[in-house]
Amino acid sequence: MGKKGKKEKKGRGAEKTAAKMEKKVSKRSRKEEEDLEALIAHFQTLDAKKTQVVETPCSPPSPRLNASLSTHPEKDELILFGGEYFNGQKTFLYNELYVYNIRKDSWTKVEIPNPPPRRCAHQAVVVPQGGGQLWIFGGEFASPDGEQFYHYKDLWVLHLATKTWEQVRSPGGPSGRSGHRMVAWKRQLILFGGFHESTRDYIYYNDVYAFNLDTFTWSKLSPSGTGPTPRSGCQMTITPQGSIIIYGGYSKQRVRKDVDRGTQHSDMFLLKAEEGREGKWSWTRINPSGAKPTPRSGFSVAVAPNHQTLLFGGVCDEEEEESLEGDFLNDLHFYDPVRNRWFTGQLKGPKVEKRRRRRGRKAEPGGADKQEVKGPSTQEPLEVVREVVSEDGTVVTIKQVLAAQGMAGQLELDDDDSPEEAGVAPVEPSPRSNAMLTVKHGHLYLYGGMFEAGDRQVTLSDLYCLDLHKMEEWTVLVEMDPESQEWLEETDSDEDSEEAEGAEGGGEEAKEDSSEEEEDSGEEEEDSGEEGGGECWGVGGTLGGWGRGQLPRAHSSPFFFFLVTRF
User: Fold this and answer.
1) Segment Disordered: which positions (predicted)?
2) What is the mean pLDDT of residues 475-490?
3) Structure confidence at residue 19 (pLDDT)
4) CA distance linking residue 65 with residue 435, whole number of Å
5) pLDDT on residue 256
6) Main-chain phi, psi angles of 482, to 5 degrees
7) In CATH, what number is assigned to the domain containing residue 553?
């Protein structure tokens, strides 16, 4: 009895501390939000000048990360919204909407009146109702000097059939946040976690909300059992049985004044609706088997047609008090919720013409010529990078994926198809974090993201596609040479001019908001800087401007951002 009482008292104390911190953050951020709301209102005034839908064929979108990439439920299209870009001196935020036609391999910029304000690290979910709807919640905006952050708590829906934006105003929803996760469950949107940051304080969440798509009402869920600790940028996916999986994520804690310590979570939980008890949910911690991903943040997530979860890339950080360094990854992992098992997704490599053998084939052990693969291959990557300690104290070896071999899926692997015999390494994306990932017709699409080269942050705009049935190699749909990207070194004078420029609402945009011809000139750099407006320098450390998947500054953590959809 004594132990139980002590445990309950400790639990109440933790809840009290969390409530106190949330109140403190809310109070300090109120003034900051008032300042940023004026800047956001200015940009919305500019957007309000657009009174009709304009669809313009265009080149691929400019480099960005922390955007959302979703699939149209009825058409062979991908939908890209929002995001951010840092050029070494300032960060641009976007609320542009781009559509990629898969069959035509073409991009279209779609300008729709009254869109959501510029943002990054939001969540986007597509549902099939009414010819298709794209639901967006939250995300963040930042001041020109990157010292203040505004976290949205607004809910928007893009009606894909009519190409109209609608803001849905419903009380009782989640507080403003970034780096949260959201999925479509039956006829509801289920939202978990995220974080909120002010100038001096931050708070991470582990709360759960449900939005009813029929009644347009929010409700806060109170699952029983022990759930995940507060975090952002985690994996959130649906199992075939209708339960929800939460994996990984990022959070940080203050260990002493002005010193924070980040945690890359690697635990997994199951959120399940209780049968026969409407609105009742429960948490259960689960321990998957197989080749688990190494601890990381900034990974991207999508769901395959067979309900397997795909996890790509991210960054494994080595965090010190005054610095943050990490290894960027480009490995692919599969999680099978039916077997509760992780697999390493390995590529077979490009097919080559086979030469007829004169000699008999060497018999496989057991007399089999073909090996049936029940899931993704668990063959290890090739090069050891280093070792890290996970949150549970386990020492994990980080290995870099180089010309990975093998395959994934319920397929048969012929021993003549090995990439060793072909001698050709499969094409694959460069290591990165905070990329956008989605699946359409059994093909995995990867767009953008970022990596670091010394003190430089390289933001990507390339587009890759992987046939999940063949698992041979990635196809490059949009190429990008990272060396061609402009990088501006920041100076004191740059900082001063940036503050002055940002105070007017995004530099030239404030002066040329009536110049529609220039806005539609098609010059991507000018468009992304001016129309994208809203600078957000982001946070610091060794990251240059923004934070590891929204990491160092509590941002949206691993992300996040990923935004990730389930189609």
Assistant:
1) 1-33, 347-380, 411-434, 483-541
2) 86
3) 63
4) 6
5) 84
6) -55, -30
7) 2.120.10.80
What is the arithmetic mean of pLDDT over 449-465? Answer: 94
Check whether 253 has a pLDDT greater than 50: yes
Q: Is residue 269 part of a domain?
A: yes
Statement: residue 15 has pLDDT above 70: no
Is 503 within a domain? Answer: no
What is the domain extent for residue 53? 2-347+410-490+537-559
Q: Categorize the per-residue pLDDT at 279 as very low, low, confident or very high, splitting at 50, 70 and 90.
A: confident
The region that residue 279 occupies, defined by phi over 0 for left and psi between -120 and 50 for alpha, beta otherwise, is: left
- Residue 444 in domain: yes
Contacts 24+ apart (CB under 8 A), 491-496: 494/89, 495/145
Residue 39 phi, psi dihedral angles, 5° rounding: -70, -40
Q: CA-to-CA distance for 76 and 132, rounded, in angstroms?
A: 13
**Residue 436 included in any domain:** yes
Quick one: pLDDT at residue 66? Answer: 96
Residue 424, amino acid = V
Task: Spell out the residues 6+ positions from residue 456 whose beta carbon is closer than 8 angstroms to its own.
Answer: 88, 487, 544
CA distance 549 to 540: 12
Residue 446 CA to residue 436 CA, distance in Å, equals 6
Cα-atom radius of gyration of the chain, to the nearest Å?
Answer: 24
User: 432, 451 in Cβ contact below 8 A?
Assistant: yes
Number of domains within the chain: 1
Mean of pLDDT over the chain: 78
Q: How confident is the model at residue 390 (pLDDT cuts 50, 70, 90)?
A: low
